[in-house]
Amino acid sequence: MAHKASDRILDLHNFGEFGGVNPSISDSSTYTFLSAKTMFDTFEGNTEGCYLYSRHSSPSNLYLGEALAALEGTETANVTASGMGAITAVIMQLCNAGDHIVSSRTIYGGTYAFLKNFIKKYNISTSFVDITDLESVENAIKSGTKMIYCESVSNPLLEVADIKALSRIADKHGIPLVVDNTFSPLSIAPAKLGAHIVVHSLTKFINGTSDCVAGAVCGTKEFCLALKDVNSGAGMLLGSTLDSLRAASILKNMRTLHIRMQKHSFNAQFLSERFEEDGLRVVYPGLPSHSGHELMKSQMVPEYGFGGIMTIDVGSLEKANALMELMQKENLGYLAVSLGFYKTLFSAPGTSTSSEIPVEEQETMGLSDGLIRFSIGLDDDIQRTYDMMKNCMLKLDILARDKVVL
Ligand SMILES: *Cc1c(COP(=O)(O)O)cnc(C)c1O
């Protein structure tokens, strides 16, 4: 087996029906059987390679699943219609009414809202903890705790989770560590570091073209089959199924993920170093000033860098909004949520993607009003981008002219 995840993805070859270099796209919701017995066995989950109904599995979804398992180094992977479809299925599968979850408090807004509000209906409670404080993580575990949940690099504050240490705590208590690796595909391999289940929003870097939403659960065969069980699987029964046509297009995009991640990271590293030198409050795990810098270094694959996301705190929401509007006017990127696009995307998370989090809680997390989250694009001449961004900041007095060496 190839040592590198990128080569493991490229080594997969599933030819199309007529020898096409890409696998054929399955264009059917249902499949015929030559014998009634095989149909029965397939229902029971016994017949590998047989397809029953496309909510259960389809050839195109299995091909994409194979690539995701190759990416994360897990036994297998299931794909879903969105990242939230993957995350909610995992949580519903692992928890019964009355159970408890220990989760990082700095997570994607949708996941936070699901854990904080939605699953109350099932009397499932969550303790939100500072994931970098291992003692508080362990102290939060109680008898009904069914999982530890975190993001390898968190949204939007870019906290780095110590996956090895967290997996040791999980193992000690006999519960799974579930890691959302959306921000750091290829650079961090949570399963290799001890995570039991890895979830993704494919919508972001993995697909990279901002043309669809999709998700994945990477884990053991046992868990992924349980998710698909026709009688009790949360994946199968909650019905968040990815369409085959989309699975096929995401698979094609995944083959360039390694090149894109290198460029996203290179550009984000370049800009974060320059803007920090200019005196701005920049948060990027690739900066030695970042509290998770050494930890990230110790658990990443260096050539993919520290990722494409950085934040800059420009002091106030008014300044943040003015800067984002000006940068969009100058064609430096788009004022939009989401990430992983070829074009730089920026948003103020406090009022957008993290707006599910109450204002007081945003404050204790360090999520300030003037924070802009950047998903740095694939600009080829990043010096030019830096010069143009700096001009926008000078115009709005975000950078003082006397502080900048022109
Ligand atoms: C976007 C995102 C999600 C949700 O994924 P969708 O595809 O939008 O459902 C989950 N986790 C993280 C870290 C994300 O950035």
Automatic annotation (TrEMBL):
Residues with N6-(pyridoxal phosphate)lysine modification: K204
GO cellular component annotations of the record: cytoplasm
Record has Metal-binding as a keyword: no
Keyword Transferase recorded: yes
Molecular functions (GO terms): carbon-sulfur lyase activity; pyridoxal phosphate binding; transaminase activity
Protein name listed in UniProt: Aminotransferase class I/II-fold pyridoxal phosphate-dependent enzyme
Keywords: Aminotransferase, Pyridoxal phosphate, Transferase
Cofactor(s) the protein needs: pyridoxal 5'-phosphate
